[in-house]
Amino acid sequence: MTKTYAVIGDPIDHSLSPAIHNAAFAFLGMDCAYIAYKIPKGELKEGLESLKKIQIAGLNVTIPHKVEMMQFLNSADNDCNLIGATNTVVNENGFLKGYNTDLGGFLEPIKKRNLECKDTKVLLVGAGGAARAIVAAFAREKVHKITVANRTKERAQDLIKFANKLGLETEYTDLVSAGNVAGNHNFIVNATSVGMRENACPISTRSINSNCVVYDIVYIPVNTELIVQSKERGATVIYGWEMLLAQAALSFEIWTGRKAPYDAMKLTLLGRF
Ligand SMILES: NC(=O)c1ccc[n+]([C@@H]2O[C@H](COP(=O)([O-])OP(=O)(O)OC[C@H]3O[C@@H](n4cnc5c(N)ncnc54)[C@H](OP(=O)(O)O)[C@@H]3O)[C@@H](O)[C@H]2O)c1
To answer: Is the predicted pLDDT of residue 157 greater than 90, yes or no?
Structure first.
């Protein structure tokens, strides 16, 4: 029987996940299909019931359900419990097992470049769901300190509390000051949605220099304004599509137990931009 997988969220129309995963299934000749399934906020329970009826084999979970999905899981791995959110679910005859591949997916491009995180200073711009997984990832890599910059201070403070619990030194800064001090950090990560489908930069890049690694998790366009300006200043850059692809590959491996065909998935993803 064909196994069906889905990404659930809202909005979901422009999700790149079906293209990436269907390319992987086709490349490996697997009898599997991956669909995008819109579940509006407040309708997760009903949406999951429908998916269970069609014996969905696995799910990716995206905005706005990553946190709420936790209460529908029968078991959750350590990363889910740490972050308090899931993005990957396996359905074994109605028993839902949750995983979180955002953490590993975020770190993969850093590791690929052999960049050392231990004892470094991080400027994290943004304090939403993705930022939480990024704090957990940097905590695991034992960075020295995370400075959180966010438009809404209260949300930054919540994230700072979480980082402190994980044993990290922290500081808050506003978005304007973040631009002044960015160059004093080893890693500068944009985890806001600023720059997504628009020509805007979340912070000023004036202090960014060749000692900085600038990681923009926004992936449309590939060359965001932050990436373009950071490259001009000589920084090492990491693109949002790299995290997107890495977390997808990890989900694929959890569902299928097979090594993800990374190059086939990459070709399809980059062809979509
Ligand atoms: N590459 C990947 O694999 C990957 C994975 C996950 C997410 N993402 C991308 O990362 C971004 C954030 O995702 P998320 O799930 O964390 O979303 P989220 O929970 O909604 O958080 C959004 C963040 O963006 C900030 N923000 C939004 N509009 C802003 C504006 N006009 N000016 C300044 N700050 C603004 C918010 O600040 P406030 O707190 O002040 O509202 C918050 O920090 C999205 O673009 C998403 O597509 C990429």
So the answer is: yes
Residue type, 101: T
pLDDT-derived band at 219 (thresholds 50, 70, 90) equals: very high
**Ligand 1 site: residues with CB under 6 angstroms?**
63, 102, 126-131, 150-152, 155, 191-194, 196, 217-219, 240, 243-244, 247
Give the three-state DSSP class for 95: strand
Q: Which two tokens stand for residue 96?
A: 């839902």
Domains with residue ranges and CATH for the chain: 3-99+243-272 (3.40.50.10860), 103-238 (3.40.50.720)
Do 205 and 211 contact (CB within 8 A), yes or no?
no
**8-state DSSP, 266:** H
- The 10s digit of each residue's pLDDT in 17-58 is 999 999 999 999 999 999 999 999 999 999 999 999 999 999
Q: DSSP letters of 207-230? A: T--TT-EEEE---SSSS-HHHHHH
Residue 157 is encoded by which pair of tokens? 């403070």
